[in-house]
Design goal:
The protein is of the alpha/beta class and about 110 residues long. The chain has helices at about 1-10, 30-40, 60-70, 75-80, and strands spanning about 50, 80-85, 100.
């Protein structure tokens, strides 16, 4: 998740509000780590961004299932965005405007 942390740091000078925003990254499938993060946050004020180029790896599906077991059914509808090149592979119900599609031609991981 070093790339994500660097992006957040690079954008900090452009922050337009006075209150601080905390960014937390979950970069592995440890359910204990997820529980620790969920204990620290207030879900009503949380935006969860799931980034997976293919949305096809077992890890991504496992992570979404872990989250689903720990939050209300409306959380995905209100607080989750997914970044992917394959939106047809998303297996949770979120609004279409919460899906950010990256062209398949862009190589690399995200």
């Amino acid at each position: 998740h070093l790339g994500m942390e660097m992006a957040v740091e690079a954008l900090q000078p452009f922050q337009t509000h006075s209150h601080s925003t905390e960014f937390l990254f979950i970069d592995n499938l440890d359910g204990g780590l997820l529980d620790t993060v969920l204990e620290k946050i207030h879900l009503a004020d949380t935006l969860l961004i799931i980034a997976s180029k293919t949305m096809n790896t077992p890890e991504v599906h496992y992570f979404i299932d872990l989250i689903s077991q720990r939050v209300s059914s409306t959380f995905f509808q209100e607080h989750v965005f997914i970044v992917t090149a394959f939106p047809e592979r998303i297996h949770v119900s979120i609004p279409n405007h919460h899906v950010i599609v990256i062209p398949k031609e862009i190589s690399g991981r995200f």
